[in-house]
Amino acid sequence: MRRVRSARAFGSRVAFAAVVVGAVLLVAPVVALAAGDVDQANCPFETEASPGFRSFLPDCRAYELVTPPYEGGLQAGLTVRGSVPLSPDGEHVLGTDFAGFAGAENVEGVSGELGAVYEFSRTPSGWSTESLEPPAHQYARQHFDAASADLSRSLWHLVAQSHEGEEVGIPEGPGAFNYAIREVVGGRARFVGVGPTEAPGAPHSLEGEDTGLKFRGASRDLTHLLFLAVPKSNGHYLWPGDTTREGGESLYEYVGTGNREPSLVGVSNSGALEGTTHINDEAKLLSECGTLLGSGGVSFGSGSVYNAVSADGAVVYFTALACEGTPAVNGLYARISGSKTVAISEPALPGGAAGECASSEPCHGATDKEGVFQGASENGERVFFLSEQPLVNGAPAEGVKLYEERLEGARVAEVIDVSNQGVGGVDPNVLGVARVSEDGSHVYFVAKGVLTGKNGEGKEPETGKNNVYVFERDAQFPGGHTAFIATLSSESEAELEKHEEPCAALSGEPKEECEDPFKAEYNTRNAADAADWSIDDERPVQTTPNGRYLIFTSVAHLTPEDTGTAGQVFEYNALEEKLERVSIGQCPAPALACAPSERFNEDGNTTSSENGAKMLTPEYQIFVYPTEASSSLSLSEAGAVAFISRAALTPLAIGGRENVYEYREGDVYLMSPGDEKAPLQTEETRLLGTDESGRDVFFSTSDSLVPQDTDTQASWYDAREAGGFPAPAPPPACVGDPCQGPLSATPSTPSAGSTGIAEGNLAPPVSKLVVKPKPLTRAQQLAKALKACRAKHNKHRRAVCESQAHKRYGAKASKAATNRRGKR
Questions:
Q1: Bridge pairing between strands 481-487 and 442-447
Q2: Which range among 285-289, 524-528, 572-576 shows the weakest confidence by mean pLDDT?
Q3: Which of 19, 615, 758, 759 has a beta carbon 3.0–4.6 Å from 634's, enabling a disulfide?
Q4: pTM
């Protein structure tokens, strides 16, 4: 793209533009129509004419108000998973608010935890607001769990009324706790029961204690739901047929709605579970010690649940936990269509033959090495896991290796040692997977071994350090290819110990004072990278669905111009094998690219950790949310990056505040307004996310960026490409009697039960013109007075009223007034 700031001619639109500008100035802050914006010579006229248009935004963007104009004095917040669920197209957004509006009856059911859940949807005339809360008179207590990928359906944990009018208290009787799906049919919302939360005979949950199923994951459309039975000190309440030992965790699945019992997942049964009395009567558990979705939090490295449930729900990856007896180690399996179980960490190769280890001993059936799930493709056909077990010929006998398996139907069709595709023959010492692309073509991982040669900048991986690699199998590399990206940590633990050697002879406080400077430097430069990339739940890494682009944060100096000590955001282009720093200063217009010394603010380098750049971090380890693939995104499909930084990276940005930026094609642009008067109180919600295409960048601000925004609370906005809505229309000109109004203003009082809160932002309030009415003529005054007299029912009083009206406004009064003016 080209950045152009020169003027352009409007041609035949000039006259019409002048009219629109005049209307806008009457009702909104001064917003002059501009000739294009910071990187576009021409923008849609409707966008430039909207009050949300700003010439410093790129890509012909304009601000759109997403949340209601007035939110009852409370700003919108995040949903249960700590993020803002977005639909893939960016047209729908979920949020919460404690103020009741847009149809929310009350929010007693959430015990003050979150507030009511709302859906904000874009329409041709503005963003609308709808409450997703179930009716309080039917379900006084409820909890939102998840939404489908397109946000059209949502999962709720409901408590039915035990008696009419109940709003608090402990429900009684069987079936009091249930899961339900909210869906819209024929324009009306309804809640359809999925199945009970608690097993037969289990005591009902008390306040603060949950003895029932706990949501863990779902398919993208919420037709397949996965739950864990939560162990409690007073007993583990399981469904009949479940023989899991007390203290373990059981993984259950509900499919569709109207279920009476959930089905066990961690079984070896061939065929669906269809017991005579209870569904799980004939279940054959792979482990009585417990079953987990994916491998969340088990053993070495960090487990994961990334796509542990395939998009359509047909494939569920789970871990059967080890215990005394069987199994001896944690085993990774896949349950296919609820009727077939496939061993993943101990696979049988095509044709039923067992894979061979490097020592020529059969690998299949080995029980001394566990498998740790790291992620899968969205269709469930490709799965990645860690294991010390050599599963293919040529795999090193020692060390943690990363494997990829490809499923065909209900069998393993292919096994690849991903960590042995580069140099090979060495201990890979894989720490974990950073991210798997949705199509499974790319897997980004961290290993301390040297697995390949130099990267595009000529740097080599280092033994014992956190080296980032990518293994890709796509059209360019159908046979597979491993590339080195960067080394994250600047110092190893061994080097830290070497620094501390002079302090070894000391003891107590002197030794601590001696070691502290070295530890502080180590923590600043290394610890964040090491933790985030190996065991941290929210790994600061994202990749595009096809795996071409990767973004991540690091404190290491990974590019030549990076000289700061604070964290930076980097982007890797796998197609070009090129690494670039994203959090940089803007180039002077109209240059698209420039030398580091020419960039604004010394190229964006900073030594303050508070000013370090940040990106959003999607869930990775514990929950499988259907909205995860399109929510908490900082990276678009085309490689554009949305991030936040307290550093001023453009001329209009204010340093020391959470500025929202976009990096695109080598340059950085300001997304949030640079003239905000008040900083946000809740800065973690500042950047809300971008949609998959990058067209929409959602953020929060305390300023009113369009005239529709009438409150003083933080509101959510969308900086949308070719977006913007027209300014509120000015009121019509006032003519005749309707202009007069009452003789004295009557104070308005809210009706009983009224919240006084707007239900959307489609009909925004407007700034009214102050119109001075024209004085009435004598004839008009007389007519008005006579009209008032006719309202009197008493004939005598009416006659007196009419006589006085004629004396005051009639012909004699007019002649007298003329005579008086003549005498002056």
A1: unpaired
A2: 524-528
A3: 615
A4: 0.79
